[in-house]
Amino acid sequence: MLDSIHHVAIICSNYARSKAFYTQVLGLTIIAETYREHRDSYKLDLALPDGSQIELFSFPNPPKRVNNPEAQGLRHLAFRVDSVQTMAEQLQAQGINVEPIRVDELTGKTFTFFNDPDGLPLELYEK
Q1: Of the candidates 114, 102, 111, 103, which has an alpha carbon nearest to the alpha carbon of residue 21?
Q2: pLDDT tens, 17-36?
Q3: Positive or negative, the Cα torsion across 39, 41, 47, 52?
Q4: Is residue 15 part of a domain?
Q5: Domain named VOC: which ranges (predicted)?
Q6: How confident is residue 72, by pLDDT bands cut at 50, 70 and 90?
Q7: Is the dihedral of CA 117, 120, 121, 126 positive or negative?
C-alpha cells in the first residue's frame, strides 16, 4: 500500500542558480549534496518540513522541458502552505513573479503558481 510521496526529482539547467532558488528562496533544507564525477552531475537532496524530499539533479546539456501547449506527463509540483497570500508576498519580495491568487472551485482553497529558474511550474496550495 502506498503511504506518501517520498521525493520528487527535478533536473535543472544551472545547478548553482537552482540550488540557491530551492534553498534560499524556498527555504528547503539540504540533506546531502553529492557530485558524481563519472556523470559530471550533482545530486542535491532537499527536505521539506513534513519529511518529503526534492532531489535536484544537474546533467550536462539536458534537453529543454516541453510545456506549452501542456504536454503529457507531470504537470506541476504543488507545495502546501498555511497562507498562500503570505508565501506569495515573500516570493514577490525576492523578485519572483507570482500569478494572481485564485480559489479552487472544487475545494474553496486558495492557490497560485510561480516558476523555478528553469520555468518548472510550482504551485502554492493553502492547507
Answers
A1: 114
A2: 999 999 999 999 999 999 99
A3: negative
A4: yes
A5: 4-127
A6: confident
A7: negative
66 within a domain of the structure (yes/no)? no
Are both 5 and 54 inside the same structural domain?
Answer: yes
Q: Looking at residue 69, what is its pLDDT?
A: 67
28: cell is 528547503
Number of domains forming the structure of the chain: 2
* 3-state class (DSSP) for residue 38: helix
55's grid cell: 532531489
Looking at residue 98, the DSSP 8-state letter turns out to be B
Q: What is the pTM of this model?
A: 0.88
Beta pairing, strands 53-58 & 110-115:
unpaired
Please give the residue range of the domain that contains residue 38. Answer: 1-61
pLDDT at 66 over 80: no
Closest among 116, 120, 45 to 76, alpha carbons compared: 120
Identify the pLDDT of residue 63.
Answer: 84
- Among residues 31, 13, 32, 41, the alpha carbon closest in space to that of 116 is found at 13
CATH code of the domain containing 109? 3.10.180.10
